[in-house]
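Continued from yesterday's entry.
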Amino acid sequence: MKKTVMEVMKNTVDKFGGKVALKYKVDGNWEETTWKSYYDQVLVTARAFMALGLEKGKAVSILGNNCPQWFISDLAAIFAGAVPGGIYTTNTPEQCHYIAEHSEANIAVVENAEQLKKFKEIRDRLPDLKAIVLMNGSDSDDQVYSWKELPKLAEKIPQSELDKRIKSQNPDDCCTLIYTSGTTGNPKGVMITHDNITWTANQVISTVKGNSEDQIISYLPLSHIAEQAVSLHGPINMGATTWFAESLDKLGENLTEVRPTIFVGVPRVWEKIQAKMLAAGASNPWLLQKIAAWAKKKGKIAGYAFQEDKPMPPLFNLAQKVVYSKVRNKLGLDRCRIFISTAAPINMDTLEYFMSLNIPVTEVYGMSECTGPATVSLPEPFKYRTGWAGPVMPGAEISIAEDGEVLMRGRHVFKGYFKNEAATKETLDNKGWLHSGDVGIIDEKGFLKITDRKKELIITAGGENIPPQVLEGKLKAIPVINQVAVIGDKQKYMTALFTLDPEKIVAEAARAGSSAKDSASAAKCEKFRAYLQKQVDEVNSTFARVQTIKKFVILPEEFTVEGGELTPTMKMKRRIVNEKYAKEIKSMY
């Protein structure tokens, strides 16, 4: 039976009212909120929003880092018959304006003075905006209300008025807007329904055998559907506890405190953990390095054997005791039973690195338009395959179109794009199939592998169609290379822009006989470039001649969200990269 978000949360509160729902740091100490208290705060905040003029069907823009106030604001908007619309904290005032205006936001909830400043700058151009709520601190502005003022405001609206709004909603109503971070153009508002959220959360939880004892850490941007599914709506469905990381920088430290049972990371997070572990390992005594190398060799063999239900290699249990268990303890992943990578392609080198330490990172493929997951891989025999995104989520369908595009269908597929019928018709066909824009293949076991983006194919001057992600994935396996942008559209040959891993430069430079200490000095050093060229040549030997990288440029800094080259979900904005590094690209042709 279809359910609303309110029904699911009420059911969980009735079951687990006294259990801890949220944990967060206050002055360095972990504080906690029970399910009953969490629910009561949502009801009070919903009434306060109504007192501030929140109308049914309008929006609440939320701009802030992960915290209880974010969750409560999101749910309060839904309970009051409005729609929450998360905004990335890195967004500029103009980007905030687009989302708030497009969604017809009545209320903006902002984290602090820095984010408040963005809305003060644009509020005169937001005709629907009636109030701004500040999560932390206060402000003398008449239109700005502190979080502490909400209970008093709520007194103006009786619970019966909120109950009417709750009862008037149906499971097929849109209850959340997810704004795509978009590699081109303005973001689109993905309309997610109650049923999309509650059904998808239930399917995933059943698949991963989630329960009220699970511990989740929330740290990825909540404007993204993946984090909402994992740390907001998943726990509401199963009564699990969500811990809020203090920041991305403190994630490593927080992991050892939380010791999550399920951990989801984007590829960039897994890559950073890998880089730190490699740097730490390089400073170990010779004997420990030899033991680690032996264990990793066993781990990789075991990982592939496990996937095919074959026997473990000899002495695997010894390696587990001596190395793998200690690594998990040090990372804070000793209780973790599911390790997931999602939101973007992850390179094989990183997957195999973690597999060699008996940490099977499995991939989940999906998009905002299907409420997050379309496939779900599990660390069980036959349920995952390294480098593949796994089988379709139970109860859903997946198919490959004649041109190779990945199609999805099911109750997780969105209602359409808000105020954009043309884009909706392009993405949803008349048979209910969602056209992903990704190109992929499905193997004999039903496992999906994404091979490229349909619209990102490079067409060379010779008319060759070349998928950049395949090339970039292989080039990123070169140890010192961090990020890759393959260039070649309308050109005679293929080239690449590289960024280097700052934690590996010195060690790799030493191997090259170079004194380079950073990307800038590495780019100028002939010995380092010659050393890197050899490794590029080795990768080139695996490509067809037209795909080989003829020239490359080492960039002085990484691609970043702040620099404009990446979306908040770490997808590359190729147009921006081409524009920003036009001079460097021109030098290669």
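--- second protein ---
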Amino acid sequence: MQKIGHMIYKIGFGTVRILSLLLVGILTLCSLLWGYYAEDMTTQESIAHREPILLHLAGLAVLLFLLFLALKLCRPTGRRRSFLLAVTLGWICLWGLFLVFGGRSIPAADSASVYSIAQALAFGHTEVIHPTDSYLSYYPQQVGLVAYYEIIIRLWNLLPVPFSAHYILQCVNVGMACAIVYFQYKTICLLSHDNDRAAVCYLFLSMLNAPLLFYTSFVYGEIPSFAFLSGGLYLLLRYFLAQDLSATGHRLALAGSLLLLVLGVALRKNSLIVIIAAVIVVLWECLRARKTSLLLYALLLTLSSAAILPAISRSYENRAGNVLSSGVPAISYVAMGMQVSSRGNGWYNGFNFNTYEESHLDTAVTAQKSRDAIQTSLSAFRADPGFALRFYEGKFLSQWTDGSYFCRQATLAHGDARWGIVEALYTGGLAAFFIHYCNIYQLLVYGGSLTCLLALRHRRKMEAYVPAAGMPFYLGMIAVLGGFLFHMVWEANSRYIFPYFLLLLPYAASGLENFFKIIQNAKDNRKNYEKPV
């Protein structure tokens, strides 16, 4: 029986390694050749562009040169590395606050709806909890984000400050972005066995992450949710990989991980993909190590993640003395993901909202209409396989090769006049530069991740460069694989891919550090070879 379990573990581990390498290899190649981004910020249509390969390779060379220069000059150890972390967090705070107050972005569309409901509840207006006449009647999965915002707005209202409440939510996002960097920094330290250069590579990538800075102005769930997820993933990996934990420390790591991961789901339901990845890794390790504590953790994580949003909804319903509808059914998003949209294949075209409204907010009727729409799309795909191939090719590229990850469109709306240099990044002369920079940065992250996985694939030949890695090392990559599969079926948007891009950063840092070591060793070997005897 033990041999069978070991064989299953080995097959699963090998499958994850091959699929991860294949996906990241395709992403790297596609990022080099194509870019999907909007030229017109009014229509926000995502258009395919053949990238200027030589320009992007030159930009990539510049970034690599700067990184290698930093590695040569910094030589970080102990306190110096902590100082670099503090500098990175300070840099993110500085630019994040600059974009918050210089960009003057305000909540719009879904973001505005969630924000206004949270404001109303903070002032005691519970009529926004309604089965038909409320945004939550359509999208009850946003109730966790509403609760999070309500708590912050209530605290904000206690202060005699003239700024609108959305500014404090954006400032909290800046702090959450710092939390993301901190937890991922601690994660790369775990994954690389406290390798100084790998940590510096991660901090370098964090300082260059323009979409992360722009999304601090986005009053929605991406940044706070991923902050909780990154903390939860770090504590889970600490349980698996840390050598200095006591029995109590192991239990606290699992408890803290459980709490943070569930909070991540509460703020963004699509975070369930990361939860599934965590459960897969935990069960796989349970198969290998036969620890009942891991089985209990997986069960609690599954049940808590499934129950958190219904529990919050029930608390609001009790408070308001009213109920919320079950909302737009999930299958409507699948149907919409198989339709052409002006913004891109499978992107939002209003089908889910309009169908639910036309069905008088009847979930069962909407689900049936969505199934009919899916059959219509499948018939069109069967009648013209070439069209189906082009459709899903465009859907894939429009999500995964947009280096800006929709950050400009998501934060486009503004109240007071933007500062000139910030407006230039949205619609002015700096917009093209910003787009190309983001695509070059994306190529650096994809390429670094590919280098990491290739090194792990040939670990026996490269033991000097790569630490031993088991299934927990691939936790983030399993989530990326899940995100790829999910969003090829679900509604498309490059904004939805941004959390998975963040999950790749520790792998990219490890890969860039491996690349640096290979080059450094090649130079040393050449010097030794040319040295006169």
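Residues 494-530 form the longest helix (37 residues). Confidence is low (pLDDT under 50) at residues 460-468. Will compare against the first tomorrow.
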